[in-house]
Amino acid sequence: MSTQTLTLAAVNRMDADAFVASFGDIAEHSPWVATVAERARPYPDRAAMVAAFADAVAAAEPDAQLALLREHPDLAGRAAIAGELAPESRNEQAGAGLDRMSAEEYARFSRLNGAYRERHGIPFILAVKGATKDQVLEAFDARLDNSVEVERTTALAQVQRIIRFRLEDRVAS
After folding, report:
1. For residue 85, pLDDT beyond 80
2. How far apart are CA 61 and CA 120, in angstroms?
3. Where is the Oxo-4-hydroxy-4-carboxy-5-ureidoimidazoline decarboxylase domain (predicted)?
4. Cα gap 123→118, rounded to integer Å
5. CB–CB of 162/124 below 8 Å?
6. Domains with residue ranges and CATH for the chain
7. How far apart are CA 78 and CA 138, in angstroms?
8. Catalytic residue among 33, 37, 72, 85
9. What is the DSSP letter of 101?
10. Taking a C-beta distance cutoff of 8 angstroms, is the pair 117, 123 a contact?
């Protein structure tokens, strides 16, 4: 992963291997998303690049989508506490204040993560960039009782938002 902002021209000049090496981590531990999105190059603008990644997720087989969802870490979960999050996940969760919680707040998140995962079979996924801890908790409350189908659709939309935010951080407009 490169933290340097790239120009769209540089992205379009990359060979396929360099592209996947640069963007394979955009979707949590799922480089296949970048492999599929790469085939839509050259991108006329950054929005087209974002759309190619979103389309790769949307067009994937249900098993691949489910695997992608299951790769996401729990919000304020064990990986966060142990310092094992990918750098972008760590920064996103820290931006929402999820790295500065009391023991009681961590316990609440742990209970919610467990209940959500048990009900839906996937981790709770929310694009937390720009959100507060309270907004994350409100989203948990609003979504916990949804059907599995609604939550899988919602989670995929949230993954696409996360991908957009990450691409916007890496590629100049």
Report:
1. no
2. 18
3. 12-168
4. 9
5. no
6. 8-61 (no CATH), 68-170 (1.10.3330.10)
7. 21
8. 72
9. -
10. yes
pTM of the predicted structure, to 2 decimals: 0.91
- 29 is known as an active-site residue: no
- Tokens 């094992």: give the residue: 84
- Produce one character per residue of 72-94: b if its CB has 16 or more CB atoms within 10 Å, e if not: bbbbbbeebeeeebeebbbebbe
C-alpha closest to that of 32 among 75, 63, 73, 74? 63
Backbone φ and ψ for 167, nearest 5 degrees, come out as -65, -40
Q: How far apart are CA 76 and CA 84, in angstroms?
A: 11
| Backbone dihedral region for residue 130 (phi beyond 0: left; psi -120 to 50: alpha; all else: beta) | left
Backbone dihedral angles phi then psi of residue 33, each to the nearest 5 degrees: -65, -45
Please report the pLDDT score of residue 51 as a whole number: 98
CA angle 169, 13, 37 (to 5 degrees): 60
The fraction of the chain above a pLDDT of 90, given in percent, is 76
Closest C-alpha to 160, from 55, 90, 64: 55
With 70 as the cut, is the pLDDT of residue 24 above it?
Answer: yes
DSSP characters for 109-128?
Answer: HHHHHHHHHHHHSS------
